[in-house]
């Protein structure tokens, strides 16, 4: 969706999709918008509560069944297991994705890891395709005129033009671009606290082969899971930046992460968007 600054200001029902790398301040920016006026849609929350809900619970139950005490209680229907996914706590989604590597250190086999990656890929596509429906429900049921879509950090990896077309037809796409000075900070933060991530399969295959050769590991089953995630993140980071920019160039607009961080309220947010539209129209 393309529009002039004035068209945006006159838009009675503002609908925006935020795209960014993890750490760029996307969710922080979305939270500056008053929840009384803006319907907040989280792609990752939708993934965890709808499309990966059962696989996530199955994974938790599988772990519980390895504990004799819990196993007996589960088999006798004496307890039940649920997860408490919230917009601010997406740990169950992250733990389901898991890390590739030595099972003795909670790593996943390559086959299982790729199975979960595929499920996440399908779930993220479905969650983004749900955006038009939620725009309608937000206004029809709850009376919200404005809509913010906090999209997952891996949307640029989906290789699904249909998803981008859907988002562009129904929302104004805003990419929060990380300035060079902040890039290394985010990379170092991710390397010291490695978290499960989604990778395009072609990227994973290429970088995994490179890592195994570099570290002289015979297979993924002997490599430390955290080591691979820490090593691959800078490569993933670099590969995603041009993908995000290409989406913004074709479908939307770009704002600087430093400018986004300076936003304090809704008025600042509107000004941020109108300035971006004015510069890039």
Give an overview in words.
By secondary structure, the chain is an alpha/beta fold. It is built from 14 helices and five strands. The protein has a domain at 5-43 and 124-280: Rossmann fold (3-Layer(aba) Sandwich), CATH 3.40.50. It has helices at residues 5-10, 26-30, 43-51, 53-64, 68-75, 91-97, 110-129, 131-140, 161-170, 180-192, 201-215, 225-251, 257-261, 266-280; strands spanning 15-19, 38-42, 146-150, 172-177, 253-256. Strands 2-3-1-4-5 form a five-stranded parallel sheet, with helices on both faces. The chain is globular, with a radius of gyration of 20 Å. The model has no long low-confidence stretch (mean pLDDT 94).
Topology (elements, then pairings):
Blueprint: H1 5-10, E1 15-19, H2 26-30, E2 38-42, H3 43-51, H4 53-64, H5 68-75, H6 91-97, H7 110-129, H8 131-140, E3 146-150, H9 161-170, E4 172-177, H10 180-192, H11 201-215, H12 225-251, E5 253-256, H13 257-261, H14 266-280
Helix pairs in contact: 3-7, 4-6, 10-12, 11-12
Note the main attributes of this structure:
281 residues, five-stranded parallel sheet, 14 helices, Rossmann fold, alpha/beta
Multimerization status:
single chain
Strand content: 5-15%
List the total number of helices: 14
CATH topology of the domain at 5-43 and 124-280: Rossmann fold
Secondary-structure element pattern, one letter each: HEHEHHHHHHEHEHHHEHH
Estimated radius of gyration: 20 Å
Give the overall average pLDDT. Answer: 94
Structural class from helices and strands?
alpha/beta
Number of E-type strands: 5
Distance between the termini: 12 Å
CATH class of the domain at 5-43 and 124-280: Alpha Beta
Strand order, largest beta sheet: 2-3-1-4-5
């Amino acid at each position: 969706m393309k529009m002039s600054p004035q068209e945006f200001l006159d838009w009675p029902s503002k609908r925006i999709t935020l795209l960014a790398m993890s750490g760029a301040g996307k969710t922080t920016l979305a939270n500056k918008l008053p929840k009384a006026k803006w319907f907040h849609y989280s792609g990752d929350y939708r993934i965890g509560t709808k499309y990966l809900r059962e696989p996530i619970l199955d994974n938790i139950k599988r772990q519980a069944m390895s504990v004799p005490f819990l196993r007996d209680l589960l088999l006798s229907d004496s307890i039940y297991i649920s997860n408490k996914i919230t917009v601010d706590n997406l740990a169950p989604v992250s733990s389901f994705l898991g890390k590739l590597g030595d099972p003795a250190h909670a790593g996943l086999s390559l086959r299982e890891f790729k199975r979960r990656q595929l499920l996440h890929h399908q779930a993220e596509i479905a969650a983004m395709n749900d955006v038009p429906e939620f725009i309608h429900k937000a206004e029809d049921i709850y009376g919200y005129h404005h809509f913010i879509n906090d999209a997952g950090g891996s949307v640029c990896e989906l290789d699904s033009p249909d998803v981008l077309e859907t988002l562009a037809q129904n929302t104004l796409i805003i990419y929060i671009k990380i300035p060079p000075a902040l890039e290394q900070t985010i990379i170092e933060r991710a390397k010291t606290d490695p978290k499960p991530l989604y990778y395009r399969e072609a990227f994973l295959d290429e970088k995994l082969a490179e890592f195994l050769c570099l570290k002289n590991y015979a297979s993924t089953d002997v490599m430390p899971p955290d080591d691979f995630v820490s090593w691959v993140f800078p490569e993933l980071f670099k590969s995603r930046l041009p993908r995000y920019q290409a989406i913004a160039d074709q479908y939307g607009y770009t704002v600087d992460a430093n400018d986004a961080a300076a936003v304090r309220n809704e008025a600042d947010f509107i000004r941020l968007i109108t300035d971006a539209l004015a510069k890039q129209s």
